[in-house]
Amino acid sequence: MFTTTVLEALAAAKIPAYVDEVMPYVVAHPVDVPQDEAESGEHVIVTTLDGATPIYRAEAWVPDRAPYFAPVGTVYEAPGDDPAQCARAVAEWFTTPRPSAGAVLLAALAEWGITTHSDIGMSYAVPLDPTTPAADICNRPHLSVGDRNPSVEHVPAAHTGWTLFLHAENGEPVGDPLFISGDGGPVDCDADSAAVAEAIADFLTCPTR
Questions:
Q1: What is the pLDDT of residue 202?
Q2: C-beta atoms surrounding 31 within 10 Å
Q3: Does residue 38 contact residue 29 with C-beta atoms inside 8 Å?
Q4: 13-72 pLDDT per residue, tens
Q5: pLDDT at 121
Q6: Which of 145, 153, 134, 155 shows the shortest CA–CA distance to 197?
Q7: What is the DSSP string of the chain?
Q8: What is the pTM of this model?
Q9: Among 32, 61, 146, 158, which residue's CB has the most CB atoms within a 10 Å radius?
Q10: How far is residue 40's CA from residue 203's CA, in Å, rounded to a whole number?
C-alpha cells in the first residue's frame, strides 16, 4: 500500500510522518515539530500519481488564511518506484541550511577554478573569456549549465540531470548540448556535477574550440 511504503521510507530517513485522516496522502514534518502541530508550519505532503510508470510527488506547504494552505515548492517529483529516494529528498528539504543541486555544482566547478554567473536560480553562465564583466556574460559567447528540473535550487536528491550548452555572441544556444545526463528520473547529484564540471573545464581549455 502506498501510504505504508512511504511511511516506512520516511522512517528510515528519520523523518516523522503520518497519514492524513481525510485524504489518502502522507504528511511529513520536521523532527522538532510535534505531529499535532505539523500543519501549523511548513510541512511536506507526499502523494503518488498513477500511470504506466508510478510517480512519487512531494510538495511543501505552509498555512495561508486558515483553513487553507499555500504551496512553497516541489520537493520531489520523478517517475519510478523508489520511495527511498523521495524520502531522502524530504529529509534534505528539512535540513538546515537546506542543500541544493546548484551548490553541489558550484563546489564541483570550484575544484577546477571555474566561477559562474547565476541566472535567477534557473541556470549558471560561464564566460568563454574570464575577463567578461558579469553584466555582459549573457551577451557574449558563454556556456550555460542548467538542470532538467529546470531549477537549480531543488535539493540534491531531486536532481534529474545537467544540460550544458554553448551560446554565441547574441546569447542564443549553438547546436546540440555539449553535455546532457538523465532521462527524467533521479541522477546522483555529486557524480553528475563532477562530470559536467570536468566537461566544462575540458571545453574551456581546448585549444581548438
A1: 96
A2: 9
A3: yes
A4: 999 999 998 888 999 999 999 999 999 999 999 998 766 567 889 999 999 987 889 999
A5: 60
A6: 145
A7: -HHHHHHHHHHHTT--EEE-SSSS-EEE--TTS-GGGGGGS-EEEEEEE-SSS-EEEEEEEEE-STT-EEEEEEEEEEESS-HHHHHHHHHHHTSSSPP-HHHHHHHHHHTTT---EEETTTEEEEESSTTS-GGGGGGSSEEEEEESSS-S-S-GGG---EEEEEE-TTS-EEEEEEEE--SSS---HHHHHHHHHHHHHHHHH-TT-
A8: 0.90
A9: 158
A10: 50
Length of the chain: 209
Q: How many other C-beta atoms lie within 10 A of the C-beta of residue 144?
A: 22
- For 50, half-sphere exposure in the C-beta direction (CA atoms, 13 angstrom radius) is 2
Distance between CA 136 and CA 181 in Å, rounded? Answer: 28
CB atoms within 10 A of CB 148: 15
In this model, does residue 112 exceed pLDDT 90? yes
